[in-house]
């Protein structure tokens, strides 16, 4: 296999839909990850990464207190078409373990997609989530997607600050403790508005709560 291409921190260099394509990404703390489209053979890597998420991270990311991924969920997470459903998986360049996944699932309108990023606890706060969002946005643009939607989970008394922080992002719906926002994907990178959402999430005010298999739970 050819050596993975290298991208510096914050560089939204593009990955293709070819699941043999790989990109080496340097994070802001000097650590490196290898990012590529997910493959059906990544089941155990995804299972292992899930096992390394804390109970708090699992709840914040998946909105339910699940302790393990079912076989049908693993099917859904790893068997994607790289067009309507894309997932980019990040591996520790040294240890080879899965450490993060960025995913989008196209919605019925054809030009918007649910998006979610999951990073294991030990790798949070190092820039991996932002790097995955950049690459995911590039893949989405290549597949004709113009907007990302995400479900944000927050405590009721934090919602006002959350909405104010999102700027012109479009609020599609809101409920007790949650809000669904839509952010336009810019021509390059993730843009200020999407980055603003990420900063709110990283600050601990809210969490990206879209389950990894989308708002529609797959299987059992």
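-> sequence recovered:
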């Amino acid at each position: 296999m050819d050596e993975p291409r290298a991208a510096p921190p914050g560089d939204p260099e593009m990955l293709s839909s070819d699941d043999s394509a790989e990109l080496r990404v340097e994070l802001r703390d000097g650590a490196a990850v290898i990012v590529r489209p997910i493959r059906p053979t990544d089941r155990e890597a995804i299972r292992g990464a899930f096992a390394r998420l804390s109970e708090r991270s699992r709840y914040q990311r998946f909105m339910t207190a699940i302790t393990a991924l079912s076989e049908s969920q693993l099917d859904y997470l790893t068997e994607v078409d790289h067009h309507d459903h894309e997932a980019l998986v990040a591996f520790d360049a040294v240890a080879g373990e899965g450490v993060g996944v960025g995913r989008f699932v196209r919605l019925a309108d054809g030009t918007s997609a649910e998006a979610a990023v999951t990073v294991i606890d030990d790798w949070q706060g190092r820039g991996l989530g932002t790097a995955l969002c950049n690459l995911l946005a590039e893949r989405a643009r290549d597949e004709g997607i113009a907007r990302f939607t995400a479900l944000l989970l927050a405590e009721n008394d934090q919602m006002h600050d959350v909405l104010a922080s999102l700027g012109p992002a479009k609020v599609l719906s809101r409920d007790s403790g949650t809000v669904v926002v839509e952010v336009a994907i810019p021509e390059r990178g993730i843009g200020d508005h999407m980055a603003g959402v990420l900063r709110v999430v990283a600050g601990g005010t809210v969490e990206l709560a879209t389950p990894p298999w989308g708002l529609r739970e797959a299987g059992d």
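The chain has one domain: 5-208.
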